Amino acid sequence: MSILASVPAAALSEAALSAAARAGRTGFAPVFTGIGVVAPTGASTEEHWAATRAGVSGLRPIERFDADRYPVKVAGQIRGFDVKSRVPGRLVPATDRWTQFALGAAQAALDDAGVDPAARDPLELSVVTGSSSGGNEFGQREIARLWSSGPGYVSAYQSIAWFYAATTGQIGIRHGMKGPCGVVVTEQASALDAIGQARRELRDGARTAVTGGTEAPIGPYALTCQIASGLLSTDGTYKPFDPTARGYLPGEGGAILVLEHPDRAGSHYGVLLGYAAGFDPAPGSGRPPALRRTIEAALADAGLDPGDVDVVFADGAGIPERDRAEAEALAAVFGPEGVPVTVPKTMTGRLYAGGAALDVATALLALRDAVIPPTVGVRPDPDLHLDLVRDTERRAVLRTALVVARGHDGFTSAVVVGRGTAGTDTRHMEGTR
Amino acid sequence: MMRELTLDDLRTMMRSCAGVDELVDLDSDIAELTFEDLGYDSLALLEIQSRIQQTCGVKVPDDALEYMRTPGETIAWVNSLILAAA
C-alpha cells in the first residue's frame, strides 16, 4: 500500500501542504464509505462500472412511452431496476420513480458502507440529496386523474411525492435518520452542492451522511419541459467537445453516496478533499463564467495545486458555446492538454440532479482501480486542446479527481476527491506518469 | 349506486393504493388488527377513504377516520353509512 493510500488527504506533496497552509484550511476532510448506483449503464454499482469501463452506452431509443411525436427520441434509460425487491412495498404507491431510484441506491450504499442505521444514534445520521425536477411522472399521472376523473381521484400521496424534498424525507424516514437533513435544488450542480452541504453537516457534528442525487426525467411531461430549453439533441447524439455537437440527451438515475467522519473505522473509497460553488454573471455582462474561479476555489479548499489533479470528470454540456467555455476554463487552470479529461455521461445522457452524483461515484471507482473510463462517440475539436480519454479506458496513476458540474442559468460547482484506502497499489506505475 | 364494503374489497384497496409492508400478510385474518400495526399511516388511510367512496358510492366524512382504526371497524362503519343513506 502506498503512502498516498494510507494518508490520502495530507501526503500529496510539499506544495500541496504549503498550499493547504496558505488556504488556512480548518475543517476535516470526510470520507466516502459507500456507493449505490442506479444508472442507464447498470442498476448496481459494479454493473455500472463494468459497462462504463468497457464503453457500453445506456443511451437508446425511448422505451418508457411512445416518443414518436417528440423531437427527442433517445435517452439514457435504466434496465433491470426491480422496484419490488429494491423499494419497500408500502413506499411504492407513495413515491415517484426518482425517489424509488434513490431508495434503492441508498440501501445499496448503506450496505456497501457497512452502516446499520438501526444500531446508531439517529441524531448523528444525516440525509442531504440534490433534486432538480422532483416527482414529475407521479405528478403527470395525478393531473391526468384530476382532469379525467375528478379531484376525488387524485392520490393523497401527490401532496408529498412530487416535492423536491421527498427523496431526502423518504430515505430519512425509512432508515430512521433524524440528524440534520436537507435538499439542495441547483439544477445539474445539485448533487455536488448536496455533497458540499453534507460535509457542512458532518463538520457540524453529524457522523454519517447519505448524499448524492437521482432523477427520473424520461416521461412525456418531463421531456416536454426539457425540450422547451432548446438544449436537447434531436439527432440522437450527445457529443460534448465535438465540433458537430448539437445538444445533449437526457437520462435517468444517479448515485447515492455515504459520506462519513474520517475517524470512522474501516476502509473507504476516497476523501472529499475540496468543494466550491459559484454562479455565472448575468448574460451580457461581459464577465467570464464562474467555472474557472470555482475550480480554483475547490483546489484551494483542498489545499492542492493544479498539478496535483490527475483526471477531470468534465461537465460536457454538448453545446458548442458551453463546451468551449469549459475547455477554456480547464486550459486556464491546467494548461493546454494539461490533464486527462473524460465525460462518462456520454454513455448515460445528462441525469440532472443525478449526473454529478454518478460522476463522483465513477471518479471514486476510477481512483480505486487506477483507470480512467472513456468518453464515447466524440471526436473533440482540436482547437479546444483537451486531452480527452476517448473510446477505450486509460490506465493511470490516480491520486485525485476533479468533478465539474454546470447547471442551467449559471449554477457551477466543483468537487475534488482523493484516493481512499480501497485503492489499487500503483507504486509500480509511478514512473509512467 | 351503492354497494356494501367487504374485507376483500378493503384488501384490494390497501394493496393497490397504499402498498403492503413486507412483514404483513393481508390475506391472513386482519379484521381486528389496527391499520397502524399493519403499516398504514394517516395518508394511507386518506387514500383508502377516497377509494371506498369511489367503490361504494357513499360519502365518508373526514372525521370518520377516527372510527376506522381496524379493517373490521371500517367495514362496520362504512356499511352503517350505506344503510343510513339507503
Question: Care to give the gist of this entry?
Answer:
The complex is a heterodimer of chains A (433) and B (86). Chain A has helices spanning 3-6, 14-23, 45-54, 83-86, 97-113, 136-148, 158-161, 166-175, 190-203, 220-227, 291-302, 320-334, 355-369, and strands at residues 31-38, 59-61, 74-76, 125-130, 181-184, 208-215, 253-260, 270-279, 312-313, 340-342, 371-372, 387-388, 394-395, 400-406, 411-419.
CATH level-3 fold name of chain B: Non-ribosomal Peptide Synthetase Peptidyl Carrier Protein, Chain A
Share of residues in helices of chain A: 25-40%
Oligomeric grouping of the chains: heterodimer
CATH architecture identity of chain B: Orthogonal Bundle
Give me the CATH fold name of chain A: Peroxisomal Thiolase, Chain A, domain 1
- Provide the number of structural domains of chain B: 1
Beta-strand share of residues of chain A:
15-25%
What share of residues of chain B is helical?
A: 40-55%
Kindly describe this structure:
The complex is a heterodimer of chains A (433) and B (86). Chain A is α/β, with parallel strands linked by helices and 433 residues long. Chain A has one domain: Thiolase/Chalcone synthase (Peroxisomal Thiolase, Chain A, domain 1, 3-Layer(aba) Sandwich). Chain A has helices spanning 3-6, 14-23, 45-54, 83-86, 97-113, 136-148, 158-161, 166-175, 190-203, 220-227, 291-302, 320-334, 355-369; strands at 31-38, 59-61, 74-76, 125-130, 181-184, 208-215, 253-260, 270-279, 312-313, 340-342, 371-372, 387-388, 394-395, 400-406, 411-419. In chain A, the strands form three sheets. Chain A has an eleven-stranded mixed beta sheet, sandwiched between helices. A two-stranded antiparallel ribbon of chain A has the order 2-3. In chain A, strands 11-13 form a two-stranded antiparallel ribbon. In chain A, helix 11 runs parallel beside helix 12. The longest helix of chain A is centred in the N-terminal third of the chain and has 17 residues, at 97-113. Chain A is globular, with a radius of gyration of 20 Å. Chain A starts with a helix and ends in a 14-residue tail after the last strand. Chain B has 86 residues and is mostly helical. Chain B has a single domain (7-20, 30-85), classed as Non-ribosomal Peptide Synthetase Peptidyl Carrier Protein, Chain A, CATH 1.10.1200.10. Classes of the chains: A alpha/beta (433), B mainly alpha (86). The interface between A and B is medium-sized, with 14 and 16 residues.
